[in-house]
Amino acid sequence: MEQMNKRRMERERKDIRGNNSFSMETIYACRPSRVKPPQPRRRQDILNPMTWVFWALLSALFAAATALLAKVGVANVDSNLATAIRTSVILVFTWAIALGLQKHHGLAEIGRRSWLFLILSGICTGLSWLCYFRALQIGPASSVAPVDKLSVVLVILGAWIFLGEHLTPIKLVGGSLVTLGAIILAFA
Asked: Do 162 and 120 contact (CB within 8 A), yes or no?
């Protein structure tokens, strides 16, 4: 292997001397074989703080903390009242972030369609939280949380039906495994 690299480098050195062509490939060909040219990055580092994977992992971490903290907090409290308290905290927290980052100036730029879907999303979020807190109040957190994560499967199907996203065999297998895992954990 080393001999082949040396011969290749000799040929390319001759090409450099014989021709007036000059490129990055010829420079890298003249470098010692143990030094490899820099490779273009084909994928971003998945744990880079600016990738969706990083934020999704943080979301999962906080969702897990939410389930555990809510299970303790909802004890001896009406689940609807507990959801209202939690939602109030979220309201203050998220507006503090939006105001602190000066993002509130974009309110006037939001179109009607976006308002409609954001409002509908907010209603669905509220209904989800009300149901989730009620389930936590009467069931074990280790069973409620996996069943709640069946939303992953519903999102995969909904994205395929309503958003035109591709439903690949890998997504089908993954969604099936999530469903199976949720069922197993719910009744474990």
From this structure: no
Instruction: Look at residues 116, 184, 124 and name the one whose alpha carbon lies nearest to residue 150.
Output: 184
- Give the three-class secondary structure for 23: coil
From residue 143, how far is each of 31, 67, 175 by CA, in Å?
A: 59, 11, 18
Contacts of 48 (CB under 8 A, 6+ apart): 54
Nearest to 148 by CA among 184, 188, 182: 182
Instruction: State the DSSP code for 166.
Output: -
pTM flag (> 0.85) = no
Q: Please report, in tens digits, the pLDDT of each residue of the chain (188 residues total).
A: 556 555 555 555 444 444 444 444 444 444 444 545 555 444 556 666 678 878 888 888 888 888 888 888 888 899 999 999 999 999 999 999 999 999 999 999 999 999 999 999 999 999 999 999 999 999 999 999 999 999 999 999 999 999 999 999 999 999 999 999 999 999 88
In the chain, DSSP finds a helix count (H) and a strand count (E) of 8, 0
Distance of CA 40 to the CA centre of its chain: 24
Q: What span, in angstroms and rounded, lies between the C-alpha atoms of 155 and 148? A: 12
The answer to whether residues 64 and 126 touch, using CB atoms and an 8 Å cutoff, is: no
Distance CA 65, CA 152 (A): 18
Q: How many residues does the chain have?
A: 188
